[in-house]
């Protein structure tokens, strides 16, 4: 199974410990842009943004998820420059065959279509290599930038899940979007042609 996914303009690959300094620079610069949409750091846990060893442990944990088939994390690179992340998380097999997609991008790189391209790459990987049946993306309703990604891709809106996830210390409602393999097969040529 390929560890890197190549799009028209982006490369997705697992982050490595040596990516820390660039990752840290982007995360520090984007703190205000990103923190309001993310879970709080558990009390007493190391700050992965400021602690290089914590970042290395995070990379190794993601490697282990790859080995177990329980999750696939990718850094997003444009022209070789790190600019965000996209992940397939909490993969469930059995009758569900589902994964959750999460993403973020450097504010300076937002609005250029890199994230929709990444979502299409990850969807193709999920459906064609991992043989999943469904992917889900959950977004805080007022997060217009993230919602714009799924709207560009015309991913199906399944409604609002109330107080769905703890985000920045508050139980937030989320709009849930999903795509099944049947939808992927029906729309594959259109999505690949437009974005990859």
Describe the structure.
The chain is α+β, with helices and mostly antiparallel strands and 196 residues long. The chain has one domain: Gcn5-related N-acetyltransferase (GNAT) (Aminopeptidase, 3-Layer(aba) Sandwich). Helices cover 37% and strands 32% of the residues. It has 6 helices and 8 strands; from the N terminus they run E-E-H-H-H-E-E-E-H-E-H-E-E-H. It has helices at 20-29, 31-35, 52-68, 114-129, 144-153, 181-195, and strands spanning 5-6, 10-13, 72-78, 81-92, 98-105, 134-139, 156-167, 170-180. It has an 8-stranded mixed sheet with strand order 1-2-3-4-5-6-8-7, sandwiched between helices. Helix 4 (114-129) links the parallel strand 5 (98-105) and strand 6 (134-139). Helix 4 (114-129) crosses helix 5 (144-153) and helix 4 packs across helix 6. The mean pLDDT is 95.
List strands and helices in order, with pairings:
Elements: E1 5-6, E2 10-13, H1 20-29, H2 31-35, H3 52-68, E3 72-78, E4 81-92, E5 98-105, H4 114-129, E6 134-139, H5 144-153, E7 156-167, E8 170-180, H6 181-195
Parallel strand pairs: 5-6
Antiparallel strand pairs: 1-2, 2-3, 3-4, 4-5, 6-8, 7-8
């Amino acid at each position: 199974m390929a560890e890197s996914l190549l799009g028209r303009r982006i490369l997705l690959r697992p982050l490595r410990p040596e990516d820390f300094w660039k990752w840290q620079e982007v995360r520090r610069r984007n703190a205000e842009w990103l923190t309001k949409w993310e879970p709080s750091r558990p009390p007493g846990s190391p700050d992965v943004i400021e602690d290089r060893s914590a970042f290395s442990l995070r990379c190794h944990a993601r490697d282990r998820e790859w080995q177990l088939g329980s999750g696939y994390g990718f850094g997003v690179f444009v022209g070789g420059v790190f600019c965000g992340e996209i992940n397939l998380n909490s993969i469930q097999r059995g009758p569900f065959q589902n994964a959750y997609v999460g993403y973020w991008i450097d504010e300076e790189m937002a609005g250029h279509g890199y994230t929709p391209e990444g979502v299409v790459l990850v969807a193709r990987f999920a459906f064609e290599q991992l043989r999943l049946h469904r992917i889900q993306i959950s977004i805080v309703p007022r997060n217009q930038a993230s919602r714009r990604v799924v709207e560009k891709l015309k991913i199906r809106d399944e409604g609002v899940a109330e107080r769905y996830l703890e985000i920045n210390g508050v139980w937030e409602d989320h709009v849930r979007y999903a795509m099944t393999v049947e939808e992927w097969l029906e729309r594959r040529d259109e999505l690949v042609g437009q974005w990859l």
